[in-house]
């Protein structure tokens, strides 16, 4: 393919340096707001918002439910940057371009990536509105030979062959469970395996049955490649899926998956998510 005309380290540095001239915030945690979860960034104080269109060489996002801006500011005392709107493979970007903001975050000094997403619940015990702490992922697009790290490797970001067995930070997952207990979220908090499909269509019944068989708990269209890019450059990662719909694995069901439902559940959980993420940011900044 022709998807490997990746941005050089220097070009990404240029983007990071541009952003550093626009704000005095020096973020240590980067947050990606999932579909319908953009309001997560509204609790950021001293907020400075930079639309993607105003950032030289930055992609621009097109999907409903995604504003398309970086929000610099603080959650509590902690300096953060949030992406309101991420870049999806189905928009037509190569994977490395979907993940460009992760490397920009790295160059801004971000140490920790918190990637949130809306996902379909495949595990039959999951209910709409549940929160799934991501324990691990299956890089299905990688199985098919597509990976954000393809092409020349720049050692300044990380090694050619990065390990991926500790992708989702164990300490963070422990903290996330503890905080969930404290917030009395026991009944909606889950832990499981996420996988990303390219989209934009939702899955067939046969596809979902296959994914269930291989141990997938939640299905989405993001996160996996971002996490790979973040781990490659040695950022610590936390992943959280909001279960916005039940995956339909039976031909008798009338219902169909749809994007409106995904956005509605985001709205329904927005206050809770804000509180949970703020608390996690506080706790993560201490370890
Ligand atoms: Cl059912 N599938 C995928 N791929 N992404 C989703 C989803 C389902 N529900 C929300 N996002």
Question: What does the model show?
Answer:
- The chain is an alpha/beta fold.
- Helix content is 30%, strand content 23%.
- It contains nine helices and nine strands.
- A hairpin with a 2-residue loop joins strand 3 (69-75) and strand 4 (78-84).
- Helix 5 (170-182) packs across helix 9 (270-284).
- Bound molecules: 6-chloroguanine (6GU).
- 6-chloroguanine binds at residues 118-120, 197, 199, 202-203, 219-221, 244-245, 247, 257, 262.
Main traits of this protein?
287 residues; alpha/beta; globular; 30% helix; five-stranded mixed β-barrel; 9 helices; binds 6-chloroguanine
Secondary-structure element sequence? HEEEEHHEEHHEHEHEHH
Arrangement of strands in the largest sheet: 5-8-7-6-9
Helix content: 25-40%
Largest sheet: 5 strands, mixed, barrel
**What is the residue-mean pLDDT, rounded to a whole number?**
95
Distance between the termini: 41 Å
The proportion of residues in beta strands is 15-25%
Give the names of the bound compounds: 6-chloroguanine
Tell me the structural class.
alpha/beta
Rg over C-alpha atoms, rounded to the nearest angstrom: 18 Å
How many distinct helices?
9
Q: Detail the poorly predicted runs.
A: none
- The number of distinct β-strands equals 9
Tell me the overall shape.
globular
